[in-house]
Write a structure and sequence with these properties.
Layout (H helix, E strand, L loop, with lengths): L5 E4 L6 E7 L2 E6 L5 E5 L5 E3 L4 E2 L6 E2 H10 L11 H11 L10 H16 L50
Antiparallel strand pairs: 1-2, 1-5, 2-3, 3-4, 6-7
Length: 170
Amino acid sequence: MDYNRLVSVTGLGGLYELMSSKADGGIVKSLEDKSTKFVSTRLHNFSHLESIEVFTTKDNVNLVEVFNAMKNSEEVLPDAKADSKAIKGYFEKVYPDMDFERVYGSDMKKMVKWFALLAVNEVEIKLSENHEQDGTLHDVITPKAKTTEPKQASVKTAPPKKINSPRKMA
């Protein structure tokens, strides 16, 4: 399972692997219970984990950098259901550059829960090769648009239509 195929879906808890996408939604597989289902884009939004950034006191960083700091830390990972103060204390030790005024406790809880899910599923946390050095991300799932010149519409003139309705007589 690749990190670049993982998404978060609004309204649904947990993380999902994007199996395939369509114009009206996507087929996702849950990392928690391995169930597969179709999720409509009319009701839900998809956020690739690769595209999520975290507020810091300097420049914003990709979520991968925070996850790697969590992986390399000696601190014990708190429970995702722990209180916000305990989780904030954990991140103050693990990633002190995080902007704690703009990153809410619910966001930190989500990061802890996601990190635990990634560890259980043995997902290698790294950005794909499509991630450029200047910090822009390219969507890996959707194909790139073709860069062709638009065709000019051909103008056709048609003879006027004959009306075959009966004539009214007064």
